[in-house]
């Protein structure tokens, strides 16, 4: 990171953004526009991505490198969500997209934990600072929603209710810290295919209601992990299990070691287990490893903040 005088524009900006777990994911029937109405409660967790944006000479354009867990599975071209985020900001603000992006991955790839969305959120914040485009939070949020349904949450983090396609956010009150264990598989599940299977197997009702999550919201407000564990819910779980039946054993193993609640995270295949404590989360992760039901395991806490600048 190059030092700079406070008045001078930064030459490099590093931003951290979190992965997420859907504490509840309620999915309505597919609409004519192809989207599913969602009511979801996101929690940002301490598995994080770091995006560093470095100023390039005028005309150099965009370039991207990736390091960290499963980096080889992430595209380094214009299909990368962070690349698209930088491009969309440049277009909106009327500046040239001259920037070198580096992503350090800590969120499982294609794991249903929105790692790519976190990268996009982080890239928006980093490039806005680097290019001194000075967008408001509302403008950044609009650009984020145009990039993907989970990107706006990557900006705000903490715990939030998402409606619409999951992109219309309202902060949710949550007290205390929750301990999570995650079982990750190398073979990801395509979010689009999980929704397609949902359409075929489950279908969904036309309306989805937050009122179904009253118990969950109360548990969050009270900082009650037992109540939260009982209330975890994912309408996509049956579809993810139909596509990857071996996940059933991962859920079972966590239940056997006393997890307060276990769900497939978002569209899967990551499985999230809520634990009583950090030690309990480590014990759940160790049981998954011993049972051979995960390619890697992680422990994390939630909630945590959305995209925030680490250094510039
Ligand atoms: P979500 O929960 O938001 O649906 P996910 O966590 O299941 O997403 P991601 O890791 O965000 O999945 O990415 C899914 C796919 O998108 C990857 O397989 C990869 O090909 C592509 N992709 C594009 N940009 C990125 C990125 N920055 N990081 C990871 N994958 C990316």
Structure description:
The chain is an alpha+beta fold and 312 residues long. The protein folds into two domains: 12-172, Ribosomal Protein S5, domain 2, CATH 3.30.230; 178-302, GHMP kinase, C-terminal domain (Alpha-Beta Plaits, 2-Layer Sandwich), CATH 3.30.70.890. 33% of the residues lie in helices and 28% in strands. It contains ten helices and twelve strands. Strands 1, 2, 3, 4, 5, 6, 8 and 12 form an eight-stranded mixed β-sheet that branches. Strands 9-10-7-11 form a four-stranded antiparallel β-sheet. Strand 5 (159-163) and strand 6 form a beta hairpin. Helix 1 (81-93) packs across helix 3, helix 2 crosses helix 3 and helix 6 (214-222) packs antiparallel against helix 7 (225-231). It starts with 11 loop residues before the first strand and ends with a strand. Residues 1-5 have low confidence and may be disordered. The structure holds adenosine-5'-triphosphate (ATP). Adenosine-5'-triphosphate is lined by residues 74-75, 79-82, 103, 109-117, 119, 150, 188, 191, 266-267.
At the first level of CATH, the class of the largest domain is Alpha Beta
Number of strands: 12
Q: Name the shape in a single word.
A: globular
Average pLDDT number: 94
CATH fold-level label of the largest domain: Ribosomal Protein S5, domain 2
- How much of the sequence is in beta strands? 25-35%
Looking at the overall shape, the CATH architecture of the largest domain is 2-Layer Sandwich
Helix content: 25-40%
Bound molecules: adenosine-5'-triphosphate
Put simply, the count of helices is: 10
Overall domain count: 2
SSE string, helices as H and strands as E = EEEHEHHHEEEHHHEHHEEHEE
Task: List low-pLDDT spans.
Answer: 1-5
Q: Pairing-aware structural class of the strands and helices?
A: alpha+beta
Cα distance, first to last residue?
7 Å
- Biggest sheet statistics: 8 strands, mixed
What Rg, in angstroms, do the CA atoms define? 19 Å
Binding site for ATP: 108-118
Protein name: 4-diphosphocytidyl-2-C-methyl-D-erythritol kinase
Domain GHMP kinase C-terminal: 216-292
Domain GHMP kinase N-terminal: 80-157
